[in-house]
Amino acid sequence: MTPTGSTYDPQAGTAVPPRVGTGPSVARDRRAAPPRNVRVALVTGASSGIGAATAQRFAEGGWKVLLNGRDVPGLEKTAAGTSGIVLPGDLATPDGPRQLAESALGAAGRIDLLVAGAGIGWAGPFVTMPHTALHRVLTVDLNATLHLVREVLPAMVAAGRGRVVLVGSVAGIVGVRNEAVYSAAKAGVAAFAEALRQELRGTGVGVTHVVPGPVDTAFFERRGTPYQRTRPRPTSAGRVAGAVWEAVRRGRDDVYVPSWLCLPGRVRGVAPAVYRRLLDRFG
Questions:
Q1: Taking the CB of the first residue and of the last residue of the chain, which one, N or C, has fewer CB atoms within 10 A?
Q2: Where would I find the Ketoreductase domain in this sequence (predicted)?
Q3: Is 182 a catalytic residue?
Q4: What's the pLDDT at 3?
């Protein structure tokens, strides 16, 4: 394998490079690497919502969890009562993914699972969307995710095991009016998951794409527009976290929460005209 500058590119003859992060979060949280029988999960967006619920579910399941997000009090709340390590940072900054990878490696020595749960939204007509908001949504929801996977993946491949969980959205499957850029970003995540899964076949590393519908979290409040549709009804972050847990445990490729959300994509494939009529009415 030719080194490309990633934090996690393995050096010759080693599964994990000896680089260790030196940022303040690592200095504060560094502990001895967990035993090999204790698996390590890095969860982004772990200060609230799906990320927090997922981190707590894996901690309950005996995993060592590394928690990333920008809200330090929120991360500490998620970590309370667990052995979780708080690794605050903004993935939207140019060096954010690399710094997080370095901090995670310094804190635990390896990553067996990456759950990319960080995400933001924006709602409104595309023609009124500020360029700054457009850039931010694409950066957080798509670009940062790809860069972080790029940092973490080489060591998983070298070790011959691991899993990447990408948290998408039904918006990325069907396209949702007044959420054009968010839909585009999540559609990019879906395509990335499929392409990456094909590339990783036979390596021992899996890719899971989790597709939730609306979830009862602060996501809508933060984007500045409440959820106003009557259907689908929002589900709980805990339900999504449980689906992620089962997907990792069973090695599943695609998971919809709730499961019936797989139907719109299937209708689109076999009857696109019917699909668009339904989308015009309900989308």
A1: N
A2: 39-218
A3: yes
A4: 41
Per-residue tokens: 72: 């330090």
The angle formed by the CA atoms of residues 233, 79 and 44, to the nearest 5 degrees, is 60
**What is the reported pLDDT for 19?**
28
The total number of residues shown for the chain amounts to 283
CA distance 246 to 256: 12
Specify the range with the lowest mean pLDDT, choosing from 127-141, 145-159, 247-261: 247-261
Query: Which one from 182, 227, 256, 275 is the annotated catalytic residue?
Result: 182
Closest CA to 247 of 184, 193, 198: 193
One-letter identity of residue 185: A
Banded pLDDT at 15 (limits 50, 70, 90) = very low
Rounded CA separation 113/19 (Å): 19
pLDDT tens profile 215-261: 877 676 777 776 667 677 888 999 999 999 999 999 999 999 988 77
Structure tokens at 53: 């619920």
**What confidence tier does 264 reach under pLDDT thresholds 50, 70, 90?**
confident
| Chain segment 237-249, per-residue pLDDT in tens | 999 999 999 999 9
Question: For the chain, what are the domain ranges?
Answer: 24-282
